[in-house]
């Protein structure tokens, strides 16, 4: 739980420090993007490594090494003297961050009896929710009253406490036969993930049809196919893709991907709406989303315990349906919607999502045998990482294209507007003339303002369309959730 809190706290706070870091280190936006993009990519690449590392070191040693390295990386980031050193230290931090989440899941699953695993997952989810819960608020105050370097130092106290407790509490592993390193599998996997995630994160800016992005996607396709063929024919694969022959595990992995994608897309669009249309600052947006994070953390414990008493897939289905309904309600918001109403629906979504975290974690690992838990957890974590990395690129691309379509439709069909273009144009023209403008100048100003009103209207419709799409995505997650089960794979 301390490990989850430490990592979650750092991830959410760093983004708020970007403006100060850019000023202090004289960095441009392209360089700063690598601080986050590079971290995300390396973290994803390192997640599947726990299968091989586990056979060599054991769960205890992996966790202690990863957590200690992560805290050390945080200290180095705070000591960075320029943007290049900051990027290097963030990449180092990411190397150690990758194994933390999946190996923690495995240790929880192995440490508790079957009738207590849901509760354990719920309590750990509370820790993971605590970071995003207080991170943006704490980060906002740190940016206002302290230096950006404190963003990297705040997780050092909890990190040191977590290392000491882990050293005392975690059991020593049972002796296992070490696996040989599948170098080709590791290389093809890393090539696929790096090129694919680079394409996903940079596609909107560079252009999806640009030679650079097409080259990345081509390399990703070739390396991805090579990776799959290599792992399926290897006696000791770096990543055990044969786990996907387990139908229940595969269905759970699909639900994990959809649930993560839906969550990240909704967060991005809501924050964009708050800042672009309601003129919220990042700190104000964080305060508005705080109740939702609190509800998620507290109810995750409850839903985790419930998953010990009833089949977890029913809780997941219940949560997905409610999440879809809550997101659909966002398709009715306007610039006149009160902050209280927005907060209510965000909190309602948090209530719903709490039923898709701990129960889903338990349902995902339950079909696996003990020897498959480590690799299964790594694959699920990688699944989440790919969904999170792809979410912003996918939803932003849809939003951008839909906005252009909506603007054209509104200009062609004025009946869809909430105002009359001719009446607004005449009113604005008269106002500018009464203020002393010449007729031609007044007409130009009126037309410019009218175009802005049409664009705002198109933007609002686009938000509605996007929320409907994400709501449908959550609803689709119910289909594979129906097929999640508890059968174990037998070889």
The major pleated sheet works out as:
none
Question: For the record, what CATH class of the largest domain applies?
Answer: Mainly Alpha
Low-pLDDT regions = none
Q: Look at the structure and name the CATH superfamily of the largest domain.
A: MFS general substrate transporter like domains
Give the structural class: mainly alpha
Secondary structure: number of strands = 0
Averaged pLDDT: 81
Q: Please report the distance between the alpha carbons of the first and last residues.
A: 34 Å
Taken together, the total number of domains comes to: 3
CATH topology title of the largest domain: Growth Hormone, Chain: A
Pfam families: MFS_1
Domain Major facilitator superfamily (MFS) profile: 1-489
Subcellular location: Cell membrane
Membrane topology: Multi-pass membrane protein
What does this structure look like?
- Helix 8 runs antiparallel to helix 14.
- 78% of the residues lie in helices and 0% in strands.
- By secondary structure, the chain is mainly α.
- It has 3 domains: 181 residues, Growth Hormone, Chain: A (Up-down Bundle); 56 residues; 246 residues, MFS general substrate transporter like domains (Growth Hormone, Chain: A), CATH 1.20.1250.20.
- The model has no long low-confidence stretch (mean pLDDT 81).
- It has 21 helices and no strands.
């Amino acid at each position: 739980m301390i490990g989850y809190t430490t990592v979650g706290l750092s991830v959410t706070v760093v983004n708020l420090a970007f403006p100060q870091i850019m000023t202090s280190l004289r960095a441009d936006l392209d360089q700063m993007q690598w601080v986050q993009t590079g971290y995300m990519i390396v973290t994803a690449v390192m997640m599947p490594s726990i299968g091989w590392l586990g056979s060599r070191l054991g769960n205890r040693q992996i966790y202690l090494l990863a957590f200690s390295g992560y805290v050390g990386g945080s200290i180095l980031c705070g000591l960075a003297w320029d943007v290049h050193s900051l990027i290097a230290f963030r990449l180092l931090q990411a190397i150690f961050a990758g194994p933390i989440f999946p190996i923690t899941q495995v240790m929880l699953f192995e440490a508790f009896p079957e009738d207590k695993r849901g509760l354990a997952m719920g309590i750990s989810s509370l820790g993971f929710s605590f970071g995003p819960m207080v991170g943006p608020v704490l980060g906002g105050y740190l940016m206002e009253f302290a230096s950006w370097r404190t963003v990297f130092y705040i997780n050092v106290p909890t990190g040191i406490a977590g290392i000491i407790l882990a050293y005392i509490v975690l059991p020593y592993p049972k002796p296992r036969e070490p696996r040989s390193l599948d170098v080709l599998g590791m290389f093809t996997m890393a090539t696929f993930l790096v090129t694919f995630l680079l394409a996903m994160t940079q596609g909107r800016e560079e252009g999806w049809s640009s030679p650079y992005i097409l080259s990345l996607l081509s390399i990703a396709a070739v390396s991805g196919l090579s990776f799959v063929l290599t792992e399926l024919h290897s006696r000791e694969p770096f990543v055990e893709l044969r786990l996907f022959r387990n139908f229940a595990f595969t269905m759970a992995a699909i639900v994990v991907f959809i649930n993560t994608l839906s969550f990240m897309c909704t967060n991005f669009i809501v924050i964009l709406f708050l800042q672009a249309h309601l003129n919220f600052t990042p700190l104000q947006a964080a305060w508005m989303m705080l109740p939702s994070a609190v509800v998620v953390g507290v109810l995750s414990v409850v839903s985790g315990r419930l998953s010990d008493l009833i089949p977890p897939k029913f809780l997941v289905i219940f949560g997905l349906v409610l999440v879809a309904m809550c997101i659909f309600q966002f398709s009715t918001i306007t610039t006149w919607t009160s902050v209280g109403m927005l907060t209510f629906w965000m909190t309602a979504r948090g209530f719903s999502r709490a039923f898709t975290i701990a129960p889903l974690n338990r349902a995902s690992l339950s079909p696996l045998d003990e020897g498959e838990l480590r690799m299964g957890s790594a694959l699920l974590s990688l699944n989440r990482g790919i969904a999170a990395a792809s979410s912003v690129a996918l939803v932003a691309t849809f939003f951008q294209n839909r906005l252009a379509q909506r603007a054209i439709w509104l200009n062609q069909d004025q009946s869809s507007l909430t105002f009359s273009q001719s009446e607004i144009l005449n009113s604005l023209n008269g106002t500018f003339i009464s203020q002393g403008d010449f007729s031609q100048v007044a007409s130009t100003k009126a037309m410019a303002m009218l175009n802005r009103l049409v664009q705002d209207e198109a933007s609002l419709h686009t938000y509605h369309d996007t929320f409907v799409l994400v709501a449908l995505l959550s609803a689709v997650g119910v289909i594979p959730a129906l097929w999640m089960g508890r059968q174990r794979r037998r070889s």
